[in-house]
Amino acid sequence: GSGFVVDPNGAILTNAHVITDVADVGQNDPVTGASEVYVEFKDGERVAATIVGWDLFNDLGVVKVDPADHPVRALPLGNSDAVRVGQPVAAIGSPFGKQSSLAVGVISATGRTIDSLTSRFAIADAIQIDAPINRGNSGGALFDAAGRVIGITAQIQSTSGTAEGVGLAIPINIAARAIHDLVRFGKVEYAYLGIESLDVTPGLARSLELPVERGALVTTTVPGSPAARAQIRGGTSVKRVNGIDVTVGGDVIVGIAGKPVRSSIDVGRIVTRTLRPGQTAGVTVVGADGRRTVQVTLASRPTRAE
Mind telling me the catalytic residues? Predict the structure, then answer.
């Protein structure tokens, strides 16, 4: 795997699946870190590192080296929220063990929701690139044209197991919080609402006779979750809409903590990026009894073993 320095004290960001056994254990089994970790620098020097912690939800991990063992220089971080399709990018990693290999391309898409390799929660806002990345690129830096890190290369989607022009990177803006919390506390926790939802579009709204054209239609409310305790309603029946089975009858979320919700991805983005476990936030929903705002005290996202 690959990684890059994110602070002058020797913290190095990589993927969680690079430094843990998460890929080899069952979904409900505890995850443990590697017993030994070494970092090899571009000059060939190899030094021992310690694991600071990991974020399984976004497949991120931080290890630390002693700057006295090898000089380090933190890379400048960019703004992944500002990237656009067609923007040139460069990925640096160690595909097939070939250290410090450069691959160039463009951003193919933004805002992708992808399955996590390390948890049952999806990763939102992933960056899709056409730069050829392969096994060993995991944890490497994705740069913009100005040399700022905008993402961490994490996955390829391929039928052959090698690069086919569909690489996926975790946005640096998502990683920034994980870096801060892991370095400071050794762990990172995310807020949890406890729903599954579906994007409301104008066409779907017409078919279901919903009073709003955009939002997140709640299909499932997890029993015992903050959403369930706040009486946010999930779906009650299934209806066929344009060839797709849709669970209907639930509330439509249109706002959280004063921020508008126009899609399911907005729910995850607001809850995980701007709110904290234990915080109480107003969730505005539209349902059978009209529009209402309920106060929800958010929990911490359950781990794999919960």
Answer: 17, 59, 138
